[in-house]
Design a protein that fits this description.
- By secondary structure, the chain is of the alpha/beta class.
- It has two domains: 2-167 and 370-393, 3-Layer(aba) Sandwich (Rossmann fold), CATH 3.40.50; 180-365, Glycogen Phosphorylase B (Rossmann fold).
- Helix content is 45%, strand content 15%.
- The strands form three sheets. It has a six-stranded parallel β-sheet with strand order 11-10-9-12-13-14, sandwiched between helices.
- α4 links the parallel β5 and β6.
- α1 (2-13) packs across α16, α4 (102-114) runs parallel beside α5 and α11 (279-287) packs across α15.
- The two termini are 27 Å apart.
- The relative contact order is 0.13.
Length: 401
């Protein structure tokens, strides 16, 4: 999503006579003779392709989570990395934009630096959470860091990185236009029941670790709720349905889970959510949906990673708020019984639900706060602010009409 938004913002902002190209993880540069459009290539998925990026590497092939899990995929990831760098050498981009995915992208940034190509990091890595010593990689290889969480700008600037907070792209998401009745009819849901959205993650490994306990928690909550499971763009519907069917065979449960293509309408119309740590927690906050955050990794990954964690909380919304806005159930605390108990606390009207709703509203406000404004002093979408900074770095003034 972030890359697609940025491509669209760059196209709107760049004057037609300026050559430039953007990639999710490698390049902004224009072929010789191009005068009226931007060309994009690099790493991306369906949304990036729809926005006009030629994907040299599919983002699905880099979707690996966990220390031990990454080790087994290193040969494949290195091969994809080499493919991307070879293509960059052929096309000679004017600017590189790397987005998120630090384990892969700092190496891309290093290669761009060796080639004298300016590099911007959009959605900078969360080195403040762990591996803080890796900030030196940003100082060495990145010309500009564009951060999306309000506390990140000071963290990186204090450590010598030229960082600017541009706002979180998800904070500007509009409310879904489809109403509850039409949504219920479209997906055969019972509009008379409360709905609960289940989001186990966007990568195969983390879904395998998280979904079984989430499905079991749904069983604890009972038949008076409808359960909606959005299919992340990085996953196949058949994969999720297979896990659901396996759980049903093992437990003898015939509970129905409704798979849907998009997360935002599901969250917006749901009474609550059970959501794995990650971007989905921010989506829930923006949609104003109370939720319980869950997460589990392999025991070895947890033991190796836990001592390196430098923050007091796991949920992004809690880090932004500076307090526990939503409950966190991680590793051994992530059990079906615990999840069901925490969800019940926020399903009914009352003090607990009201506190969480107020906290989520505050988080959304914090994600939007920034002093960066357009020339006419009107608020800008974070992608527009990012595009303006990127084009200025590339020597391309903002288009005025």
């Amino acid at each position: 999503m972030y890359g697609a938004q940025l491509i669209e913002a760059l196209r709107r902002a760049c004057p037609p006579k300026k050559s430039a190209t953007h990639v999710r993880t490698a390049a902004l540069g224009c072929p010789a003779g191009s005068k009226s459009r931007l060309d994009f290539f690099g790493v991306g998925g369906d949304r990036m392709r729809a926005a006009g990026c030629e994907t040299i590497v599919d983002a699905k092939d880099l979707s690996v989570v966990g220390i031990t899990e990454i080790l087994s995929h290193l040969p494949k990831i290195y091969s994809l990395f080499q493919r991307l760098i070879v293509e960059a050498d052929k096309r000679k981009p004017d600017l590189a934009i790397v987005i998120d995915s630090p384990a892969f992208n700092w190496r891309v940034a290093r290669e761009m630096k060796r080639r004298g190509i300016p590099t911007v990091y959009y959605v900078a890595p969360q080195f403040w959470a762990w591996r803080q010593r890796r900030v030196k990689l940003l100082r060495k290889y990145i010309d500009k860091a564009l951060v999306i969480f309000p506390f990140e700008e000071k963290f990186y600037r204090d450590r010598g990185v030229d960082a600017t907070f541009v706002g979180h792209p998800l904070a500007e998401l509009p409310k879904p236009t489809i109403n509850r009745e039409d949504y219920a009819a479209q997906f055969n849901l019972d509009a008379a029941k409360h709905w609960i959205t289940l989001m186990p993650g966007s990568r195969v490994k983390e879904v395998c670790m998280n979904l079984p306990a989430i499905l079991e928690a749904a069983a604890h909550l009972g038949n008076k709720y409808e359960f909606i499971l959005p299919v992340a763009p990085t996953l196949d519907r058949s994969f999720l349905q297979g896990l659901i069917n396996k759980q049903a065979r093992n437990t003898g449960s015939a509970r129905r889970f409704t798979l849907v293509p998009e997360s935002l309408p599901a969250l917006y119309h749901s009474r609550a959510g059970i959501i794995a740590s990650g971007t989905a927690t921010v989506e829930a906050a923006v949609m104003g949906t109370p939720f319980v955050m869950v997460y589990r990794v392999s025991p070895v990954t947890y033991l190796m990673g836990k001592p390196r964690i430098k923050v007091p909380r796991f949920a992004m919304v809690n880090l932004i708020a500076g307090e526990e806005t939503v409950p966190e159930l991680v590793q051994h605390e992530f059990t079906a019984a615990n999840v069901a108990a925490k969800v019940r606390e926020i399903l009914s009207d009352g003090a607990a639900r009201d506190r969480m709703l107020a906290g989520l509203r505050r988080v959304k406000t914090l994600l939007r706060e920034t002093t960066t404004l357009s020339s006419d002093k009107s608020p800008q979408h974070p992608a527009e602010r990012a595009a303006q900074i990127i084009l200025e770095l590339a020597g391309c003034s903002r288009q005025t009409g």
